[in-house]
Amino acid sequence: MKTFKHSCSVLLIGLASSLASAEISVIVSTNNPNESIDQNTVSKIFLGKAKSFPDGSQAVPIDQDDGAAARVAFNSTVLGKSASQLKSYWSRLIFTGKGTPPKQSGNDAAVKELVANNPNIIGYVDSSVVDSSVKVVHKF
Amino acid sequence: MRTTKYWAPSLLALAIASPAMANDLNVNGFLSVGATMLDDNKASIASADNQGGFKQDTVLGLQVQKQVNDSTSATGQLVSRGSSDYNTEAAWAFVTYAASDDLDLRMGRLRIPFFQYSDFLEVGYAFNWIRPPSEVYRVPFSSLDGVDLTKRFSSGSIDGSVQVYYGRFQGVFDTGVDKYDSDYRNFTGLAITANMGNFGTRLSYHQAEIIMDTSDATTQLGGAKAAAGAIAAVPEGVDVGTATGNPALAGLTGVGDASASEDFDFAGQTSQFVEAAFTYDDGTYSAVAEWTALDHESSLFLDDQAWLLGIAARFGDFTPHLTYTTEKDSFDSGTEGEIQKQLPLESEQSSIIVGLRYDYDSSTALKFEIQNNDETTASGADGDSATLYSVAVDVVF
Questions:
Q1: If 0-12 CB within 10 Å is exposed, 13-18 middle and 19+ buried, where does residue B323 land?
Q2: Strand ranges of the sheet holding A134-139, from the earlier edge strand across to the other edge
């Protein structure tokens, strides 16, 4: 029994570390003057509650495609909402003309390219794809 | 040559910027398809009956939004409701001018922000019920033509908005029993919302001057108006049927004060509406409480109060929910009240709603609901109770 418990906890630790290794980076263009953006501000930008970066320039958030691993992690960690809750949140805004959800813009590579080429765009990708073309402003 | 190379990526960036800047046409829609079955026709809920119905909860909405330039956008929403024989109506048609990041001016056909769920009243996907409880959501029109100004604010962990509007509603006031041509003038109000973490609050106030055609005595309000005039004119304590020679008015007792009938009319009398709501949602458990009160200067409408309390729990894709809601009329004081008590106007009712929402995927919800409606008083007489069974599928796209 003790051995069983022990192997269970080893399994759990293994699982936890494999989850933790999928680190997500919130990225902007290297031409974007903002160096670091806190989670609350990132959340506000992606929920349409803030429309600009801390320095005042326009912020355009983009999402990864539905079901992408980075998107699931971003939604639950940064926004604290499930896919259904987010859909419900956005349907309350879309149909009142009060806001539109971030555009679905593909996978890690596609998001990185869009972000790199436009200083107004903010996105998130798996940290493993981050390179010098983009700047990381938040990590989790 | 070097300069050209240096600029090329920036030009590319500009070219790519356009689509991501939402300079395109956004088309969204929602569709709810429902079926209802009432166990007993004596009470009325959601226009359903005991022969089954498929159109009462069926609603199709299509919305088009176009960003015209950096600060201006145009939004139109066409809604086709089974409950009004699929006549298509522009629920929204407005131009938004964003004066700044947090200040919007809108002009056109707008939703009146009466209730917590007013903005997305017909978007079934956005809430757990199949339809918002009619005890509280009892105003039979939802849009007006006018202007509004919305200021959003954000400070630390609190964010919210203040909305003020002014306009006019000209259209048919449909009580479900009769239809009246109406004109709500100087329609104005204020709605304040604030959210902090899992908590949300909303406060709103609305008023309008009502002009309504109640000259047809065969309608409920027209008949009440005519009877009120007769009751007021007949000497105190005398039977109105005997005094007027009209057997239809027998049993009513005169009050002998002709001036008391003046406010049994809609000739510009002001009505006021106050609402307060509180919401909680921690991702697993959620609750909503909403209280409302109507205060009419006209005595043909009884003042009333209505509120609801709903709770829900999310277990993965399943969300069971429970709601209690109630509405109660009150009479005016003095002679007007004495007349109101003799007219078929008073209503008092409550409902318990038990439902289950199943999120089939991230844009489709399947809902089951049982509503037990208990009418203590309906149109001034003892009411009945009935149970309504409903299913619905809500889709957003």
A1: buried
A2: A103-104, A60-63, A121-126, A24-29, A134-139
Task: Looking at the complex, report in whole angstroms how far the Cα of residue B127 sits from the nearest Cα belonging to chain A.
Answer: 7
What is the rounded distance in angstroms from the CA atom of residue A29 to the CA atom of residue A135?
6
Give the right CATH number for B2-214+265-396 from 2.40.160.10, 3.90.79.10, 3.90.1280.10, 2.60.40.10.
2.40.160.10
Residue from A65, A20, A37 nearest A136 by CA: A37
Spatial CA neighbour of B172 closest among B212, B216, B134 = B212
pLDDT digits (tens, 9 = 90+) for A85-130: 888 888 888 888 778 889 989 999 999 999 999 999 999 999 999 9
Query: Model confidence over B190-231: pLDDT tens digits?
Result: 999 999 988 999 999 999 999 999 999 999 999 999 999 999
Domain residue spans in chain A?
A: 23-139
Which chain A residues are within 8 Å of B26, Cβ to Cβ?
Answer: 94, 100
Q: B320-348, pLDDT tens digit by residue?
A: 999 999 999 999 999 999 999 999 999 99
Enter the ipTM: 0.71
The two tokens of residue B71 are 């600060």
Contact A118 B17 (CB under 8 A): yes
The two three-digit tokens of residue B57, written as one number: 């909860």
CA–CA gap between residue B339 and residue B254 (Å, rounded): 8
CATH number of A23-139: 3.40.190.10
Strands annotated E in B197-317:
199-212, 267-281, 285-296, 303-313
* pLDDT tens digits along A30-44: 999 999 999 989 999
Whether the predicted pLDDT of B20 surpasses 50: no
Task: For residue B280, give how far its alpha carbon lies from the nearest alpha carbon of chain A (Å).
Answer: 13
A103 touches chain B (CB under 8 A): yes
**Rounded-to-integer distance, Cα B13 and Cα A51, Å:** 20
Under 8 Å between Cβ of B63 and B75: yes
Helices A108-117 and B2-20 cross at an angle (nearest 10°) of 120
Confidence at residue B4, expressed as pLDDT on a 0 to 100 scale: 41
pLDDT band at B23 (very low <50, low <70, confident <90, very high): low
Which is nearest to B36 in space by CA: B16, B12, B58?
Answer: B58
